[in-house]
Design a protein that fits this description.
4-stranded antiparallel beta sheet, 9 helices, 19% strand
Length: 287
């Protein structure tokens, strides 16, 4: 629900101006160079965009789901690369800790996500486990006060930039379904982590995805989200439920932008002595 309409309106106005004046003019630059300008990232940090949904007690703005959707409508009106750079910190990169993490995990990571000091990422998909996420094969074997992770994660958003990975792995191999899966928050500098080549994509230049490979990656037991085994799949589904709402709103914003651009072009472009917007076929397409 919306907590304070006036405050939300001020935030939306600020984001609208940022999108219009700073982001839209740089879209071609980002697409051509396939990278995000550092000055844009710095502005995003200053505006608090990395901590939009992180609770206020950890340095974020603590937006509700409804408030977040209104923000997503506005962010969706520009290149998805801009949203992607801070999107994981507000969504899949932090939500697992916000929803099910221990207080120690929240204190350790959330303030740094909120400030943009670090970027979080989410490792669920695998080469043979996409929509059927419960069949994942990455393992986490308990070894004293540690877990040993082995497996490969695929199409991981912001993986080349991330400082942490929320990793779903099977801690109980005897349970073939979702009940044997646990979630871990793993620091990037942990020994045994390597990255694949950046994926080549059809569009969305300036956003990065790649494989994340765990080879005998030794993580402390304190990295187990919530400190409980077997709830990792449930955590992942809670994260994705929230993320689907956000992406839906971003898609609405993108559709509005494309319609606005098409309408403007149809009015400006002339053929046979008149704007193409006057032709019935163009009108039908726009309708």
């Amino acid at each position: 629900m919306i907590r304070n309409q006036e405050t939300l309106d001020q935030l939306l106005h600020m984001i609208q101006q940022f999108v219009k004046n700073e982001l839209m003019p740089r879209e071609h630059e980002v697409a051509e160079k396939d990278e995000m300008p550092q000055d844009i990232i710095d502005q995003m940090k200053a505006l608090g965009l990395f901590g939009l949904t992180i609770p206020e007690e950890y340095g974020g703005l603590g937006l509700t789901m409804e408030e977040e959707l209104y923000v997503a409508f506005e962010i969706g009106r520009t290149s998805p690369a801009f949203r992607s750079i801070f999107g994981t910190n507000n969504g899949i990169g932090s939500s697992g800790i916000i929803i099910d993490g221990t207080e120690e995990q929240k204190q350790k990571y959330l303030p740094r996500y909120a400030s943009g000091e670090i970027i979080g990422s989410f490792c669920l998909t695998e080469p043979e486990s996409g929509s059927d996420a419960a069949s994942l094969k990455t393992t986490a074997v308990k070894d004293g006060d540690f877990y040993i992770l082995n497996g490969t994660k695929r199409y991981i958003t912001n993986a080349p930039l991330a400082s942490t990975y929320t990793v779903m792995a099977r801690t109980n191999p005897e349970i073939k379904g979702s009940g044997g899966i646990s979630a871990f928050v793993v620091d990037r500098n942990t020994s045994g982590i390597s990255l694949g080549k950046k994926d080549k994509k059809m569009g969305q230049q300036g956003t990065y995805t790649c494989d994340v490979i765990f080879e005998n990656c030794r993580v402390p037991a304190s990295a187990l989200i919530g400190g409980v085994e077997g709830i990792g799949f449930k955590t992942a589904m809670k994260v994705l439920d929230k993320g689907r709402l956000h992406i839906s709103a971003v898609s609405v914003g993108a559709a509005e932008r494309m319609l606005d651009d098409a309408l403007r072009y149809a009015v400006e472009r002339k053929q046979f002595g008149q704007p193409i917007a006057s032709f019935q076929l163009i009108q039908a397409m726009l309708a």
